[in-house]
Write a structure and sequence with these properties.
about 240 residues; mainly alpha; Helix Hairpins; 4-stranded mixed sheet; Oxidative_Scav/Glycosyltrans; C4-type zinc ribbon domain-containing protein; coiled coil; Zf-RING_7
Length: about 240
């Protein structure tokens, strides 16, 4: 294979490797982000439950105050029974007493209902807090694993950068400029293999003459369809 073409293939492979490191790091970060999002959702649920419990307790306090007022009212009605002077006043007091007792009964039922809601909400709160504790413990373990993996990826990237730099030190400037010009639009597919007599950049079939030149690998050959640099892989690699 032509020395310049061989260097181009190596450079292209280095650039392809480099382009893959950042997505790998992002995938590792995404693993952690999923658990962090779950933990955040649990925290929001806990805050919501706290607010609901506070609201229920506030309603219970108001009902307690109202219940105390009704009991005082019932005591006043009881005292008035000794002061009534006719049947009309007796009936009016009895009606007021019945209404007050019904209101007391309803207030007691409402307090009982609110207590049941509070009990359920506190159970939910405890379960959410336990779930959050487990999630945060898991996040710590995943954070360590992700950090280690990212460190490994960065180490690999540094090795590739170093090898690429060594290659560029002996690279022909005209060939490099030619490669960079194609890479601007072709990205990491500036240099592609030919398989089954087709360019593996645009997947168009190349003519026999161009294919023969690619096989010889004596010159740098561009795809007649897309302009990418072509090369023929070894038979074992292609297989």
């Amino acid at each position: 294979m032509n020395k310049y073409l061989e260097d181009l293939v190596k450079l292209s492979k280095f650039d392809t490797q480099i382009s893959m490191f950042e997505p790998q790091i992002e995938r590792e970060k995404a693993k952690l982000a999923t658990f962090v999002e779950t933990a955040e959702a649990i925290k929001q649920s806990i805050n919501k439950t706290y607010a609901e419990i506070d609201d229920v307790k506030s309603k219970r306090t108001k009902n307690n105050i109202h219940l105390s007022e009704l009991k005082n009212k019932l005591e006043d009605i009881s005292k008035k029974h000794n002061l009534v002077q006719n049947e009309k006043e007796v009936k009016a007091l009895q009606l007021e007493e019945e209404i007050t007792k019904e209101q007391i009964s309803f207030a007691n039922e409402e307090i009982q209902r609110l207590d049941q809601i509070t009990e359920v909400k506190e159970i939910e709160l405890k379960e959410s807090q336990e779930k959050l504790a487990n999630e945060e413990a898991e996040i710590k373990d995943i954070q360590v694993a992700v950090d280690n993996q990212i460190e490994e990826i960065n180490n690999q990237r540094n090795v590739v950068y170093h090898e690429r730099s060594e290659l560029l030190e002996k690279f022909d400037n005209k060939i490099l400029t030619f490669y960079e010009k194609i890479k601007r639009w072709a990205k990491e597919s500036a240099v592609v293999p030919v398989k089954k007599q087709s360019c593996y950049g645009c997947f168009m079939k190349i003519n026999d003459k161009t294919y023969a030149e690619v096989i010889k690998s004596e010159e740098i050959i561009n795809c007649p369809h897309c302009g990418r640099i072509l090369y023929k892989e070894d038979e074992t690699v292609e297989a």
